[in-house]
Amino acid sequence: MNLFRLAGDMTHLLSIVVLLLKIRKMKSCAGISLKTQELYAIVFLTRYLDLFSKYYSIYNAAMKLVFIGTSVAIVWYMRYHKVVKQTYSKDEDTFRHYILILLCFVLALLIHRSFDVIEVLWAFSIYLEAVAILPQLLLLQRSRNIDNLTVNYVFLLGAYRALYIVNWIYRFFVEGINFRWIPWISGFVQTALFADFFYYYIKSWKNREQLKLPE
C-alpha cells in the first residue's frame, strides 16, 4: 500500500466520521441526502460480498466491515431514529435514485470482467458509486442553509476519490500494474461530478462565505 491509497482510505473514513458526528451529536441529518446514503449502502453491500470468502489482510477486512456497518447505520438513523428522521429534508431530496440503480445494473450486465454473480455485482457497485453523489449534489443546490459539517462531508468524499486516482496513476507508473479501465473510468467520472462543487467550495472558503451552489 502506498501513501496515496492510505490517504484516500483515511479521507473516506474521515468523511464518514464527520457525517456520523453530525447525526449523533447534533441529532440532525438536515442537508444530507438519504437517497445518496442508500446508494452507498448498496455499493458496499454488493462490492464486499467476498468478505468471508477471500482474505487479503486484517486492514482490508476491517475497512470493509467499517464501510458496510457505517453505511447501514447512517441509513437507519435517517429513516428510523425518532429525532434524526424529523430533520430529513424529504421535500428537497427528490432525485429518483432507483433509475441510477437500474441503469448501473444493466450496464454491469453488459460490461464486466467476467459473467458471474460476484463480478457482475462488483462492476455494478463501481458504476453505482460513480454516480451515487448526484442526489446529494442536487440537494445542496436546493438547500439555502448548508452547515459546515455537511459541506466538509461532501468535500472529503470528493477528495477521497481524487486521491484514489492519484494512487492508480502512481501504481501504473511506479509499480507497473495493468490499466483497469472499469474502476479507472468510473473514478474519473465520479471525480468530474465533484469538480463544480470543489470550485465553489474553494471560492467560498477563500471569501469566507457560506457555500452556495448555482442552480
Automatic annotation (TrEMBL):
Record's PROSITE patterns? ER_LUMEN_RECEPTOR_1 (PS00951), ER_LUMEN_RECEPTOR_2 (PS00952)
Keywords for this protein:
Endoplasmic reticulum, ER-Golgi transport, Membrane, Protein transport, Receptor, Transmembrane, Transmembrane helix, Transport
Q: What is its main location?
A: endoplasmic reticulum
Where does it live in the cell?
Answer: Endoplasmic reticulum membrane
| Topology relative to the membrane | Multi-pass membrane protein
Against Pfam families, the record matches this protein to:
ER_lumen_recept
Q: Which InterPro entries does the entry link to?
A: ER_ret_rcpt (IPR000133)
> Is-annotated flag, keyword Cell membrane?
no
- Membrane-spanning intervals of the chain: 55-77, 98-115, 121-139, 151-170, 182-202
The answer to whether UniProt assigns keyword Nucleus to this entry is no
Family note? Belongs to the ERD2 family.
| Name used for this protein in its record | ER lumen protein-retaining receptor
Organism annotation: Hevea brasiliensis (Para rubber tree)
